[in-house]
Amino acid sequence: MAGQRPPMRLERRNDEAVLVIEPIAGPTTLDEPWGWTFGLHATPVKPFPQRWRSLRMRGDGGRISILWSTPSLLKYFGYAEAADPEAFAARVAGLREAAQLAVPYSNLRMLSEQSPEWQYFGAVWGVPGRADRSSSDVGAFGAPFMGVCPAAEGWADFVVWKNKQYVQTYGLGGLYHDHSVPVACDNPLHACGWEDAEGARHSRFPIFAARDLYRRIYAMLKDQPYETFMMGHMSGRLMIPMLSFCDAYLDGEHFRGRVVDDYTQLLSLDAFRAEFMGKQWGVLPYLLPEFPEGVRDERAPTRHLMSLTVLHDTLVWPSWCNREVVFGVREALDEFGYVDAQFLGYWDNNAWLRRGQEGVKVSAYTRDGRALLIVSNLAAELQDIRLEVDAAVLGVVGASAINAETGDRLPIADGTVTLSIPARDLALVWLE
């Protein structure tokens, strides 16, 4: 079959990137009919909702309350049933009264070994060799979390029905789906896997089945007579056929144990734009910080991270970082009214930024005759920065400049703003 080269790959040819699809790489004898299926998925899959920047986590001035999977909350890990129905109902009702969306942890491709369904159908539904036996939150339940294949007969029907009961019984505000990526499976009981000419068995990724399962869950949620929110946690694997049926994706956990205090050592700006902006996909982006202990409480690393996320109009889940830094930056953004503003990225700012500076990137929010510049100093040293801005193009006439975090006025003359920014930090410059 596909020999040494990947059957689907991107090749650089002069100034072009060429998609090469080569399912058969060499001379092959076909003694029976043979078929091959692939898909092309257009994006963005849907427009961002109005005021999407206000969809933040509880504790961050937002309305989304993630209910984690704990023995006091759920009957089994990741299972759509409350451990104490009365207490769970009271908690959800309290969140609803506080205008919060109660969004419990869920999983569409794993099932607790404790559950009665696993006892009956585990052999048919299971992905051989796939189980979580080491995570501390799983261990708190005293049983492993077993892999399930979305292509297995009966699984999709069961989990959609179970989650529908769960949502409607308690009036849940949504679902947070962990492990929102397809997993390779070779279980022949649900037609997964295949054998090569030498008889060796190989796995396949049931992407179409996974997509259909997410579509059904999403349709069930959006059929409720109130607002709902669905998040897919995927971290580094943007599988849009599945995530297209989510409101948002949570990304960044794959940097745990890899990042120390500087995300630019792992992520180029091009990579950040491709993975953590969401606009090209049509799914809201949330970044999960992963600073290690001893670093997450320091201000400078989180300031550096915010210099990247605000620069790209990306939401942050304020965990494993300095929350006060996140909230401080967010307060300045809210004071400007960035939730209702238009975002202008640094990669396309030639129309209004006449002169920049090496190691400095500038994006902007604009609304109602005002502009907020996001000035990120990505260099390793303090920089005295002079930005020549065409305020009229930004819709601002006779501009004055203010540091939006401190309230200090900044020198501005003939459209040139002067300021100093520490190494790997940002400034929010309000023009009005």
Q: What is the topological layout?
A:
Elements: E1 8-13, E2 16-21, E3 64-67, H1 85-97, E4 101-107, E5 110-112, H2 116-125, E6 126-132, H3 136-139, E7 145-148, H4 155-170, E8 174-178, E9 194-195, E10 201-202, H5 207-222, E11 229-233, H6 240-243, E12 248-251, H7 269-275, E13 284-287, H8 299-309, E14 315-316, H9 323-336, E15 342-344, E16 353-355, E17 360-367, E18 370-377, E19 383-389, E20 401-403, E21 409-410, E22 412-413, E23 416-421, E24 425-431
Straight-line distance between termini: 64 Å
Number of helices, counting only DSSP H or I runs of 4 residues or more: 9
Structural class: alpha/beta
The biggest beta sheet reads:
7 strands, parallel
Radius of gyration: 25 Å
Strands in their spatial order, largest beta sheet? 3-4-8-11-12-13-14
Number of strands: 24
Mean pLDDT: 93
